Amino acid sequence: MFPELNNLLNTTPDQAEQGKLTLLCDAKTDGSFLVHHFLSFYLKANCKVCFVALIQSFSHYNIVGQKLGVSLTTARECGQLVFLEGLKSAVDIFFRPQEDPHPLQFLREANSGNLQPLYEFVQEALKPMDSGEAAWRCPVLLVDDLSVLLSLGVGAVAVLDFVHYCRATVCREQKGNVVALVHDSGDAEDEENDILLNGLGHQSHLILRAEGLATGFCKDVHGQLRILWRRPSQPTAQRDRSLTYQYKIQDKNVSFFAKGMSPAVL
Amino acid sequence: MAAAATCGTGTRSTGSVVVAASRNNVTSFQRRGPRASGTDSGCSRLVSIAGTRPSVRNGQLLVSTGLPALDQLLGGGLAVGTVLLIEDKYNIYSPLLFKYFLAEGIVTGHTLLVASAKEDPADILQELPAPLLDDNCKKECDEDICNHKTESNIKMKIAWRYQLLPKMEARPVSSSRFGHYYDVSKRIPQELIEASKWHGFFLPEKISSTLNVEPCSLNHGYIKLLQFIQNIIYEEGFDGSNPQKKQKNILRIGIQNLGSPLWGDDICWTENCDSSHSLTKFLYMLRGLLRTSLSACIITVPTHLIQNKAIIARVTNLSDTVVGLESFIGSEKETNPLYKDYHGLIHIRQIPQLNNLIYDVSDVKDLAFKLKRKLFTIERLHLPPDLSDTVSRSSKQDLAESAKLLGPGCGMTARGKKHLDF
Lengths: 266, 422
What we know:
The complex is a heterodimer.
Chain A: H1 3-9, E1 21-27, H2 32-44, E2 48-53, H3 58-68, H4 72-77, E3 81-85, H5 86-95, H6 116-126, E4 139-144, H7 147-151, H8 156-173, E5 177-184, H9 191-203, E6 206-211, E7 223-229, E8 242-249, E9 254-257
Parallel strand pairs in A: 1-5, 1-6, 2-3, 2-4, 4-5
Antiparallel strand pairs in A: 6-7, 7-8, 8-9
Chain B: H1 2-5, H2 40-46, E1 52-54, E2 61-63, H3 68-73, E3 78-79, E4 83-88, H4 94-108, E5 111-116, H5 121-126, E6 129-131, H6 134-152, E7 182-187, H7 190-195, E8 198-202, H8 203-206, H9 220-235, E9 251-255, H10 278-291, E10 295-301, H11 309-318, E11 321-327, E12 344-350, E13 367-371, E14 376-380, H12 393-405
Parallel strand pairs in B: 4-10, 4-11, 5-8, 5-9, 9-10
Antiparallel strand pairs in B: 1-2, 2-3, 6-7, 11-12, 12-13, 13-14
């Protein structure tokens, strides 16, 4: 996790909020550093994490996680992390048809399937264990990323249904969190993606939007992060607070600074 | 893992199948690839594969694309396990890059897999450019050698210690190095092709047999191609799961014109098509196959034919490295004095961040390419000198207009609306 981002979001691993849906979106840039941040943040916060990783392999997240101070292999072995590796499972399903239902069943179906097996997998993974196991703080579902599901033939409505079910189970019942990454296609006229993004935008409590600079490429400032709080927890705070920061990604950290205050410029 | 063993008909070792629902499953399959968790011990094993080198930044195993200039722009080379997508309007120069990639595979001894729906892979291999190696250069260097021989017999009188040192080789070295140069005007010698190992997938030949996989929304041709690729990877042991074969070589896959109507895909015909997910699903499966094997893939997609822009965006997101070629032929830029020395612009649209938070970003955004008689070069775009006697305002305005057009293509960390890179 990035300490500066924790300061901006006003959280620490000890006091992570519960029952929230966080939407990560990126426009014209790569927002996967946010996924790495939340993964290591929740693992350090001693939460039980179910990670649906559809776009990269396990060792990719593991190696980056080690740079950020968490070991995914140990977390997986002791049961804190349930990792669904989409790429590997897809190859297995496609070439070796299996009898028992697999979470990524929809890959084999001809028409646009529904994500019910995936939801049941998440439900099973995050259901509270009451006997003998170490008590984790709260369950967290992390999805990287939802736009890939659209490319795989699932409709936008089906993905929204899936997120709705997950929210009902994880956020409401179990007081956990859901974090999902969606790509913003911008001017590529991807209607399904826009439906998904707008739908999730209205449901989420926190939106982190990584976008490129309006002026183009810059070596010292890699992009801009817009943080939008919706339905904040404190009643006295203003509604829909929004902040914008610029960031630079380094090898093991991401540094954030106010707009125009990049250390390279000052 | 008994649960894992019940699945499927293959004879794969049980350790290599991960049943996601089981939390205690620790796969015994350690993929021998750049994704092996972390360390120097992994790197020392991997360097021994010919034609590859570990990346300076994160130890990732890289292969050359056949163009050393392009390798440099991509941060050292193409990472093993990734897909390189070449976007070329009207498909003028992308076949050349495709052939460079395959020729590099032959020279370094990698196994090739060539898939095409239009041309027979054997014909594609015949047209590969000839490499500039020791024996090719020998004829050209012979005259030089004759000249040098007379000189070398003269004994050094003053610096006589230097006579004892071995002579420096000035010619291009043999094929154990990374990245070679090719002569586009010559064909690759037949013996090199015969000595190499390659598999061809020509769609009209393979599609005639009936398919016995249950229908899914993937195209018939794509299913066949995926099965072919998966078969080669398994049979020849590129993913380390075959107990008989211990392969320590790279599989280079080249797929031409993916998404064109010849593959049976209809995304080029209409905007809202029924099987609009065929191509993206295929790319996802291909990504899954590549990530778990020692292979690298180059694909060309006729993006000018695809009607639906959303699909192009999705294809770009599902590929790891994306290089766009914009040739000047047929556009107004052909007669523009700004571009008179070049044949087109090259944009590095996307570079993967693998095992890392950041990647090597080249500072140079304005790159142009030129196809000379023997060589395909990539250079930084230089403005031609303004040799007019008087300051002609109209020509300066034209140049400014053209410079603005360079804007949208640049930057893979961020793209903005205005062209103000600094």
